[in-house]
Amino acid sequence: MDIEKLVKMQRNFFNTGGTRSVRFRRAMLRRLAGAIKDNEDLLNEAMKEDMNKSPLEVYMTETGMVLDEIRYHLKHVESWAMDKEKITPLAQFPSRSYVSPEPYGVALIMSPWNYPVQLCLEPLIGAISAGCTAVIKPSAYAPATSAAIGEIIHSVFPPKYIAVVQGGRKENSKLLEQRFDYIFFTGSPAVGHMVMESAAKYLTPMTLELGGKSPVIVDQTADIRIAARRIAFGKVLNAGQTCVEPDYMFIHESVKEEFITEYQMAISDFFPDGDMSDMNVIINQKHFDRVSRLLESGRAVVGGTTDPERRFIEPTLLDDVSLDSPIMQEEIFGPILPMITYTNIDTCIEYIISHEKPLALYLFTASKSTERRVLRCCSFGGGCINDTIIHLATSRMPFGGVGASGMGSYHGKKSFDTFTHYRSIVSKGTWLDLPVRYRPYTPLKDKIIRLLMH
Length: 454
Known about the structure:
Elements lengths: L2 H13 L6 H17 L1 H12 L3 H26 L3 E3 L8 E9 L2 E5 L7 H13 L2 E5 L5 H14 L5 E3 L4 H8 L5 E5 L2 H12 L5 E4 L5 E4 L5 H13 L11 E5 L3 H15 L14 H10 L4 E4 L3 E2 L4 E2 L2 E4 L16 E7 L2 H9 L6 E5 L3 H10 L4 E4 L13 E2 L5 E2 L1 E2 L2 H6 L1 E9 L14 H11 L1
Parallel strand pairs: 3-4, 3-6, 4-5, 6-7, 8-9, 8-15, 9-14, 13-14, 15-16
Antiparallel strand pairs: 1-2, 2-20, 7-18, 10-13, 11-12, 17-19
Helix pairs in contact: 2-4, 2-5, 2-6, 3-6, 4-5, 9-10
């Protein structure tokens, strides 16, 4: 596929105005929803092949979330796309002021491998809803799912409107040489830097959804059984290959032993008879080797075994972890949870604010004062009190990072906003033309202007 010609073809189609009507946008959203429903088995099989993902988890974290997002946009896109009346200052009388949303144009969506359906199609929903065309670049690290997405998209949309470009770094580089009207990138901070450098060439606006080390704090007032189960859920989900996974944990020393017991019980409950055959595996050998080495950063008190033939790593809780150990220097992206004890909440806060701002933060506590303190002192993309992960599973709140964990946000109306430029328009009447603003300036005009602008 000639990428330069593809972008030009999409720009020509966008310039016809064919994507702008709300009727068209809604029809395309319905078409996408229908294609996902018709191809659920294809997507289940593809994700099983790529990462051993179970059908229930595929629906819970991928296709189900995408379909729910489409329903939300279908319900609200008509009102979002309307002009919004604004109050006109008296000095601009007689006129009408309003904000008019318009689509940016041709969008590039670059998605990662870890949630290859959700993180590809949720931004696409925003692009369609806003009235853009889109070029989608799925990750080559999930080849079966990327191929399935390409097959689905090409079966329902013409490439002049929505297209999928397959491939690896060569294709990524070629795409980033093109002039897009908006770029939406989800991936690592390292690649995010490269994408941002490329976007700077044309001053292209963009959203970066990155990652980082998202902390968990469990204090002495927390419900330890609930905390252990919900943290284990966040670590086991997708084998920890989640941008908002609980990366490391500060735990009050008075509840550490209880937590270890409850964490082991949670894992045992999740996998009856120790059968972990349906748990996700690590995406490829390179990442398996990297994550496996991190097991050496502490002592496994839960789990700790690996199966290189399957690229499988058992859910693991590490004790005796130092803050300067290898596992604390990089995003883990695996089912290993390093545990660090503390006695004073200030220790946790000082560590968190002295490092890059994380994409998520999770606090388990029954203390409202501790909750207020952590939220007041720590900057992060989003998070949960007494749970993990679930803050992103809604169309009613935006999801995004801050600082090194990203810029911009999406989900629900924020997805529409992301791919939309809001034009401020003043429509001035011609039946009256007050001369007060025109030269020559006089003391009388000065008084009138001050009166009108007061």
